[in-house]
Design brief:
By secondary structure, the protein is an alpha/beta fold. The chain contains 6 helices and 8 strands, in the order H-H-E-H-E-H-E-E-H-E-E-H-E-E. It has a single domain, classed as Rossmann fold (3-Layer(aba) Sandwich).
Length: 212
């Protein structure tokens, strides 16, 4: 399995709305309220068509939505009322441009589990650390596996990680404050997603070597 390119995501959005592009679930909303209540400033990484970004703005958050799909950003802007305080920007978070800035809260829902290979996953975590202010929060929702052995038992769908794998992946950059498990969304009520709140370390670990 390879990560989809921006061009492939553009085609995905060209042919309709992905089923996973929806507002935060009740478990995610509770995590946000508990750890990062409004009016916190939030960047919604991989915002897609902006459903979560709009929900955040409607609930009092200051929101930036970013995605590397130009089509997704175009549609997100078109669907967002002018009065709603959301800024949408096209950016590849794996190669964080300085103009993106840094944020006290990073919301990432279903992006890490679209990165199937360990070297790329490490670089994704480092990208989250670059976008997140020191001491800031990364709120993550992603596909989970019950055991390390079960990570490779599903041939299709998102790349799943056991808790052990996830903790080892994020440890150099983040401290885990809370992990819980709940359905990813209304379209995926039968499998459990990891809901994690992580705090960026003030002195994160050294960067990983580039993937070969």
């Amino acid at each position: 399995m390879k990560p989809m390119t921006a061009q492939e995501w553009n085609l995905t959005y060209q042919f309709g709305d992905p089923v996973w592009d929806e507002p935060p679930t009740a478990p995610l909303a509770r995590l946000l309220a508990r750890h990062a209540p409004p009016p916190a400033e939030v960047i919604d990484v991989g915002c897609g068509l902006g459903a979560a970004s709009r929900w955040l703005a409607e609930h009092g958050y200051q929101v930036t939505g970013c995605d590397f799909s130009s089509r997704a950003i175009e549609l997100a802007r078109a669907r967002t009322p002018a009065a709603l305080p959301v800024r949408f920007t096209m950016a590849d978070v794996m190669h964080v441009p300085p103009r993106l800035g840094r944020f006290p809260v990073v919301l990432e829902r279903g992006v890490l589990h679209a990165v199937p290979h360990t070297p790329d996953r490490r670089h994704f975590v480092e990208a989250m650390a670059r976008v997140c202010l020191p001491g800031g929060l990364w709120i993550h929702v992603g596909a989970s596996a019950a055991t390390v052995e079960a990570e490779h038992s599903v041939a299709r769908g998102p790349s799943r990680m056991a808790e052990q794998t996830f903790l080892a992946l994020v440890d150099p950059q983040f401290t885990v404050l809370e992990i819980d498990y709940a359905p990813f969304g209304s379209h995926a009520a039968t499998w459990q997603a990891r809901h994690a709140v992580l705090r960026r370390r003030s002195c994160p670990g050294p960067p990983s070597p580039p993937p070969s």
